[in-house]
Amino acid sequence: MLHDPAQLDLMFQALADPARRQMVDRLSRGPASVSQLAEPLAMSLSAVVQHLNLLEASGLVRTQKLGRVRTCQIEPTALRAAEHWINERRLAWERRLDRLGEFLAETRDET
Amino acid sequence: MLHDPAQLDLMFQALADPARRQMVDRLSRGPASVSQLAEPLAMSLSAVVQHLNLLEASGLVRTQKLGRVRTCQIEPTALRAAEHWINERRLAWERRLDRLGEFLAETRDET
DNA sequence: GCAATAGTTAAGTAGTTGCTTCAGTGTTTA
DNA sequence: TAAACACTGAAGCAACTACTTAACTATTGC
Lengths: 111, 111
Known about the structure:
- Chain A contains 5 helices and 3 strands.
- By secondary structure, chain A is α+β, with helices and mostly antiparallel strands.
- In chain A, α1 (5-15) packs antiparallel against α4 (45-57).
- The A-B interface holds A 5, 8-9, 12-13, 15-16, 18, 21, 24-25, 27-30, 73-74, 76, 79-80, 82-83, 85-90, 92-94, 96 and B 5, 8-9, 12-13, 15-16, 18, 21, 24-25, 27-30, 73-74, 76, 79-80, 82-83, 85-90, 92-94, 96.
């Protein structure tokens, strides 16, 4: 579910927009309503709702409506999936560098 | 340099495209030329070069040209910056949850 | 019940993105 | 030196994105 490439695609696409990252940043400090999310952003409420829908579709944010207010919160498992993708690639590269270093050290010893 | 919001913007935008993530994935297994990067992708070499330029502008990939071949490799520090941004937000949220849990446990004890 | 609040939905639009093709530039190799 | 190779850059184009405004629904407080 979390390593579904399509979901990963949606997540990275969601994180690519600065307004959406600002929303995630706000939510990392605690839940917020749509209007609270919109408040620091220089755009219409409607635009914020559209961003929010994208964030929700990507799995990064979960929302629930009580009465007329929709409360939003972060879904940490989704964030972890994006983090994990990057981490795996970086580690693969760094392990490769390590092996190369060992190889060079060994061949130097053989002189 | 690494926490420059503009650079972060470029990095997340670069990672948002599946073709570019595939290129990063390929490079995590070792350096490659432009043609080698292009080989598994169903698009023209020209398109690959355009993706590559974006990856380089974002700082995720570094390239150097020797003769007529351009060799590409991952820049792990840049990957780490993106990773770090996500990690900080996730941790902030999880710490908040922990504090909430403690609070609830404490207030339960007070009955 | 009426007005204010909180959000939703649809339609339209300017700007961006991800390609394409084509016509190059250097660099090797036979 | 000619041909093949490895890219590079520009122009063009269809699809997508990030907004806008405006009209709407549902809830809450007076």
